[in-house]
Write a structure and sequence with these properties.
The structure holds 2 protein chains of 2 kinds.
Chain A (H helix, E strand, L loop, with lengths): L4 E4 L5 E8 L6 H10 L6 E7 L4 E6 L5 H10 L5 E2 L10 H28 L4 H22 L1 H12 L6 H21 L6 H32 L6 E5 L5 E5 L8 E4 L8 E6 L2 E4 L1 H4 L5 E3 L4 E2 L4 E2 L4 E7 L5 H17 L4 H26 L4 H15 L2 H20 L2 E3 L2 H8 L3 E4 L1 H5 L5 E2 L6 H11 L5 H12 L8 E6 L3 E6 L2 E6 L9 E6 L2 E8 L6 H10 L3 E5 L4 H11 L2 E3 L4 H13 L4 E4 L6 H6 L2 E5 L4 H6 L2 E3 L5 H36 L5 H20 L8
Parallel strand pairs in A: 16-23, 16-25, 23-24, 25-26, 26-27
Antiparallel strand pairs in A: 1-2, 2-4, 2-5, 3-4, 6-7, 6-8, 8-14, 9-12, 9-14, 10-11, 10-13, 15-27, 17-22, 18-19, 19-20, 20-21, 21-22
Helix pairs in contact in A: 3-4, 3-7, 4-6, 4-7, 5-6, 6-7, 6-11, 7-12, 7-23, 10-11, 10-12, 11-22, 11-23, 12-22, 12-23, 13-22, 15-16, 17-22, 22-23
Chain B lengths: L1 H26 L6 H7 L10
The chains are: A alpha+beta, B mainly alpha.
Chain lengths: ~700, ~50
């Protein structure tokens, strides 16, 4: 999984390197702290933080395992998860290839321009011929290298009998190069290597921007991923345990699941009592008590005591895998979505090709000779080349996604912005989406002594209620009391001794539906209640969505009572106790009515709905699968980024439409001039660059769009 | 013309040098952590006691 990189150490001992994702790294101080403090731990030689990807690479002694390193990071205040080398299977090679191509095209463009300028200023005879040959010498390898992304894509489209934006670009560049070669060989007056290379440079700039946006967001999402059980401790016939990766588990195996560990497969409890956190599967925040005979699912986290589990369904048969399959199928419909730029070029490319062909034929008939006719045809191709279009969409989307990123929303790609802009109805999951998804304790009734004791006890457990209590108390600035002999009894609570008095956090006597715990100090008892509060700006967000003309409603898998309560507080329509299939069906029904639903949800049970919706957003606390399925992920406690995303997406599409309108107006002006032979390919290339710059400048206006 | 014979190779050589430097910087990972590079300038080094 974590392919260790073996490095030779100075002392001759092999060091290995392990990567961790550290989402809590937020400032320069964090980088400094990690890189300075970690090497002070025995066994760690070096730590290097990558701030953009929120990763830390640690070089350490092989004796230290992942658990020890995670603990070392936690000791200096950072929650961390070990990560596989490449969790999302991202290939960042594409961006590097494009950047290299851009560098080469830039080098070629500058040098050829240098030579071209002297030709325009009157270099003649052998000098001109020498300069043409030099230009050809530079341009041919540069075009072959930098043009590859376009040639490859155009070839793909043509071999599938389609056409895309890269087809006119490739034809224009290749024709211009061939004609220039002919001119150079025959010692003619004009060569257009400069136009061809400049065209490639500007187009590559647009492609690089697009790739940068995708990589940046994926790195952010990658930092949030990686919580599922990837291996399990299998108990052998002789009672020993060994770690087995989840892919190699088999039904019937007996597995030991430690407290705090995530299940790697579905199974039935054979021994032990504990509580499990099923939030990943159901989104329900209350822990579920389990004992022998209980069925547990992969992805659930064992909270309090070790469990022995007999596996029933593994790998592709687990409930999670079933949901993943549903998601996959639901996501298929989205892949048929055609990006706006491609839709435009579908109309555009045939027009450009026929215009160029007409120009060539027209001038041939008029008797201009094939050389002049071809020059004019190339000018038409270059001047109408959808450069502004190639840049119009990525430039606007990159600027908009950057603005949203600063407000805590990661948009996966440009097509997500296009789809977000046209949503007309929003469906929200409740737990973890409209609410924070974790129980927060009401500690206002506790006195100072009770608070310190409660914190001392609560800190010792990973139970969601304990964590909620500890968080609430830490927030109030409480200092924990020193509790001896802390014991966690599954299903009952925590006990300990403080100052010679028995203290405990235990299950309240009256077991109602409400979340609560009872704090006992000696003979005194006090009940602490918990609530899963709505995100503080939930109603403001819904109002903002309404202002955009988007009606919202709740579609939840939770019990009816809490869903109705939340719906009443927010004055929304609601559907409760919906299964993943029912959620999917609700979305399909909306789509069949011609609506474009926006799904906002976090649980794995929302996964298929997230994949099926026209656009979808998940909170950063969502299950890994949901984050993968969603178009965008928002971080933090505020819900407002959801409304902001819609607003910015709409502003982006307005800018994109303006950019298109501009390039069409420009073409209407330039094409007739080119058709009548009044534009040389060089002027065409300059005009095209200017139009690209106008488009980029217009797109930059989006930088402030995410401000309130 | 003799001027050109010297100047053009120099111009091309300098361009190639820049291109080589750019390739090296990509390979070296200098563009892998742009936000981090911006933040690192703010880290205060602890002075080692002399």
């Amino acid at each position: 999984m974590n392919a260790p990189i073996v490095l030779p150490a100075p002392e001759g001992r092999a060091l290995i390197s392990t990567r961790f994702t550290v989402p809590g790294m937020r400032c320069a101080g964090c980088i400094g702290k990690i890189e300075r403090e970690l090497p002070k731990v025995a066994g760690i030689t070096a730590a290097r933080a990558n701030f953009s990807a929120k990763r830390v690479a640690i070089q350490h002694d092989p004796a230290l395992d992942e658990t020890a390193l995670t603990a070392a990071l936690l000791a200096i205040g950072f929650e961390a998860q070990p990560v596989a080398e490449n969790p999302l299977g991202i290939d960042d090679g594409e961006r590097k290839r494009l950047t290299r191509a851009l560098g080469v095209a830039g080098f070629g463009m500058m040098n050829i321009m240098l030579l071209s300028v002297s030709i325009w200023s009157g270099a003649d005879g052998p000098t001109r011929e020498l300069f043409h040959w030099l230009s050809a010498l530079i341009a041919l390898p540069v075009i072959a290298y930098s043009g590859r992304p376009f040639f490859a894509s155009a070839w793909m489209a043509l071999s599938h009998r389609r056409t895309n934006m890269d087809v006119p670009i490739s034809i224009g560049v290749i024709l211009a190069t061939c004609l220039s070669m002919y001119e150079t060989i025959t010692g003619g007056g004009d060569a257009y290597f400069d136009s061809a290379v400049m065209l490639l440079f500007f187009l590559l700039a647009g492609r690089v921007l697009d790739a940068v946006m995708r990589d940046r967001t994926r790195a952010g999402i990658g930092a949030l991923l990686g919580r599922m059980g990837k291996s399990a401790s299998v108990i052998g016939p002789d009672g020993t345990t060994r770690r087995v990766p989840s892919g190699e588990l088999e039904p019937g195996m007996l597995v030991l699941v430690a407290a705090g560990e995530a299940m790697a497969a579905d199974g039935e409890v054979t021994k032990g009592f504990s509580a499990i956190d099923n939030a990943m599967l159901t989104g329900e925040s209350a822990p579920e008590p389990v004992g022998p005979g209980a069925v547990v699912h992969a992805g659930a986290i064992n909270l309090s005591a070790p469990l022995r589990i007999c596996l029933t369904r593994v790998a592709d048969d687990t409930a999670i895998a079933e949901i993943a399959r549903l998601m996959d199928e639901a996501g298929q419909s989205r892949s048929t979505y055609v990006r706006i730029a491609d839709r435009a070029s579908r109309l555009y490319a045939p027009v450009v090709h026929s215009l160029a062909l007409l120009a060539f034929a027209g001038w041939m008939i008029a008797g201009a000779g094939w050389h002049q006719s071809l020059t004019i045809a190339i000018a038409v191709l270059i001047i109408t080349c959808p450069c502004a279009m190639g840049l119009a969409v990525p430039a606007a989307q990159v600027v908009a996604s950057g603005a949203l990123l600063r407000r805590g929303l990661l948009v996966k790609d440009g097509s997500a912005l296009e789809r977000l802009a046209v949503c007309d109805i929003a469906l929200f999951d409740k737990t973890g989406t409209l609410t924070l998804g974790e129980p927060r304790a009401d500690v206002s009734a506790l006195d100072a002594e009770a608070r310190t004791v409660a914190l001392g006890l609560a800190q010792a457990s990973r139970h969601p209620l304990s964590r909620g209590l500890a968080l609430a108390l830490l927030h109030e600035g409480v200092v924990p009391a020193l509790i001896d002999d802390v014991r966690e009894v599954s299903g009952t609570g925590l006990t300990g001794r403080w100052d010679g008095v028995d203290v405990a956090l235990e299950r309240p006597a009256a077991d109602g539906q409400a979340l609560a715990t009872r704090l006992r100090i000696g003979a005194d008892t006090q009940t602490i209640t918990f609530a899963d509060p709505l995100r503080s700006d939930a109603s403001a967000t819904l109002a903002a969505l309404q202002a955009e003309g988007i009606e919202a409603s709740i579609l939840s898998g939770d019990r009816a009572a809490p869903v109705v309560a939340a719906a009443q507080e927010l004055r929304l329509a609601s559907v409760a106790e919906a299964s993943p299939q029912a959620k999917l069906a609700a979305l399909e029904a909306l789509k069949a009515q011609g609506r474009r639903p926006l799904m906002v949800g976090d649980g794995l049970n929302d996964g298929p709905a997230l994949a099926a919706a026209h656009a979808s957003i998940a909170p950063g606390t969502a299950s890994d699968a949901s984050q993968q399925a969603a178009d965008a992920v928002f971080i933090g406690e505020a819900l407002m980024p959801v409304a902001l995303a819609v607003r910015v997406a709409r502003a982006t599409m307005r800018i994109v439409r303006q950019n298109f309108a501009f390039s069409i107006a420009y073409n209407l002006l330039a094409v007739p001039l080119a058709l009548f032979g009044m534009v040389t390919p060089l002027i065409a290339a300059i005009a095209m660059s200017v139009s690209s710059l106008v488009v980029v400048a217009n797109s930059l206006r989006l930088a402030g769009s995410a401000k309130q | 013309m003799t001027g050109l014979a010297i100047l053009i190779p120099i111009a091309l050589g300098m361009g190639l040098l820049g291109l080589a430097a750019f390739f090296w910087s990509i390979k070296d990972g200098q563009y892998d952590d742009m936000d981090g590079a911006a933040a690192r300038i703010l880290i205060e080094d602890e002075d080692e006691p002399a």
